[in-house]
Design goal:
About 45% of the residues lie in helices and about 10% in strands. It has about 450 residues and is an alpha/beta fold. An eight-stranded parallel barrel has the order 5-6-7-8-10-12-13-14, surrounded by four helices. It has a two-stranded parallel ribbon with strand order 1-2. The model has no long low-confidence stretch (mean pLDDT about 95).
């Protein structure tokens, strides 16, 4: 059965194309640096937003029209699976991602839930044999069901901790069976609403114990995927323990987990944490912790997780600059953890959204590579910090000075000469590169 009858395989037609079902800038075979666009960008489709999201929000019922929604239960899960691989093939994406509850319904107990998962995973494995689309990562949804009302690994209920562990155990087994390149932990409810009834130390210790158990079990079964933590500061909790990359990094270091995890960084989560997307990417990169990316954007007029498809060329350029400086994403990728707007309810809108997002990051990659090749930002930064390459500055960074010597140097200073940061000039230069090189 075909679920997208009127849509052919999406191809690259160039910036002059007026075909709404064609890439204008994303050419998977084009070499950027020493890799093709497909190899660099490693696009992935989010199963949950693309196949299961119905368009509901806190203020309204679902609006999405999906041809597979005429089914229910396991029949619906099988129809979604069939539709998903048709979508992957027509969009020509190399990867996809999912939560356990995205692909199969929960049963009346965990044993029945696992049986449902086994059925769908077996079918998914068969689809993957004939597909070029692979599993970028999978994860366990330990936040939607009412059992997680007080958290999962950080719950005050030991039974919930055990249930969460069993779900992750199953997720690791599924990841190994399907050849997942990564496994993601998103602590949707790993945090607190109020400190008035929270034992923060116990909750964080238990979360650390949980991660160690996951590391141990992955080793036991020979699952060598990269473990990823996806930071988010709040929503649904008041405060989540994986607030941002820096907080998550400190947590990993504190519990001796820094060698086992990297970060899956989402643009909209960076916004909610009060950071830019590139800030989170930069912090992860300079600490060798950049693993993968959830490519989306938030609405600056709304203070919640809107998960819009990315269309901001400036942000995409600065994000891809960090990825280029990182040497690529390794086993990670650019997963579209993004949903079409509630008013964009037709199946065709799923293609328009992904085409736009893929073109956006293709432009970002091309412009960022040109900035990198021309050493535009490197030269600016090197010049700004040149005082640390000679004299007292060189002594500071090489550890050859102390407070006594620095005081003596400061007492003999007649004047400190500053240089302009020239931020406006830098932004104008980036704009010039965007306009000049986006369509090349």
């Amino acid at each position: 059965m075909s679920y997208f009858n009127n849509i052919d395989k999406i191809k690259f037609e160039g910036s002059k194309s007026t075909n709404p079902y064609a890439f204008k800038f994303y050419n998977p075979e084009q070499k950027i640096g020493n890799q093709t666009m497909e190899e660099y960008l490693r696009f992935g489709v989010a199963y949950w937003h693309t196949l299961t999201m119905d368009g509901s929000d806190p203020f309204g019922a679902g609006t999405m029209v999906r041809p597979w929604d005429k089914f229910s239960g396991m029949d619906l899960a099988k129809a979604r699976l069939e539709a998903s691989f048709e979508f992957f093939e027509k969009l020509n994406v190399p990867f996809f991602c999912f939560h356990d509850v995205d692909i199969a319904p929960e049963g009346s107990n965990l044993r029945e839930t696992n049986q449902n998962l086994d059925t769908i995973v077996g079918l998914m494995k068969d689809y993957m044999k004939d597909s070029n689309t692979k599993l970028l990562w999978n994860t366990a949804n330990n936040f939607t069901h009412p059992r997680f009302v007080h958290g999962a690994a950080s719950s005050n209920e030991a039974d919930v901790f055990a249930y969460s562990a069993a779900k992750v155990k199953k997720g690791l087994e599924i990841g190994k069976e399907l050849g997942a390149e990564n496994y993601v932990f998103w602590g949707g409810r790993e945090g607190y609403e109020t400190l008035l009834n929270t034992d923060m130390k116990l909750e964080m210790d238990n979360l650390g114990r949980f991660f160690h158990m996951a590391v141990d079990y992955a080793k036991e079964i020979g699952f060598d995927a990269q473990f990823l933590i996806e930071p988010k500061p709040k929503e649904p909790t008041t405060h989540q323990y994986d607030f941002d990359v820096a907080t998550g990094h400190a947590f990993l270091q504190n519990y001796g987990l820094q060698d086992h995890f990297k970060f899956n960084i989402e643009a909209n989560h960076a916004t909610l944490a009060g950071h830019t997307f590139e800030h989170e990417l930069r912090y992860a990169r300079v600490n060798n912790m950049l693993g993968s990316v959830d490519a989306n954007q938030g609405d600056p007029l709304l203070g919640w997780d809107t998960d819009e498809f990315p269309a901001d060329l400036y942000s995409a350029t600065l994000a891809m600059y960090e990825v280029i400086k990182n040497g690529g994403l390794g086993r990670g990728g650019l997963n579209f953890d993004a949903k079409v707007r509630r008013g964009s309810f037709e199946p065709e809108d799923l293609f328009h959204a992904h085409i736009s997002g893929m073109d956006t990051f293709a432009i970002g990659l091309k412009v960022a590579q040109k900035l990198y090749d021309d050493k535009v930002l490197e030269d600016i930064i090197d010049n700004r910090y040149k005082s640390f390459t000679e004299g007292v500055g060189l002594d500071i960074v090489s550890g050859k000075t102390d407070f006594h010597k620095l005081e003596n140097h400061a007492l003999n200073l007649q004047q400190i000469k500053h240089q302009s940061g020239r931020l406006e000039k830098i932004k104008a230069t980036i704009n010039q590169y965007l306009i000049t090189y986006a369509a090349e």
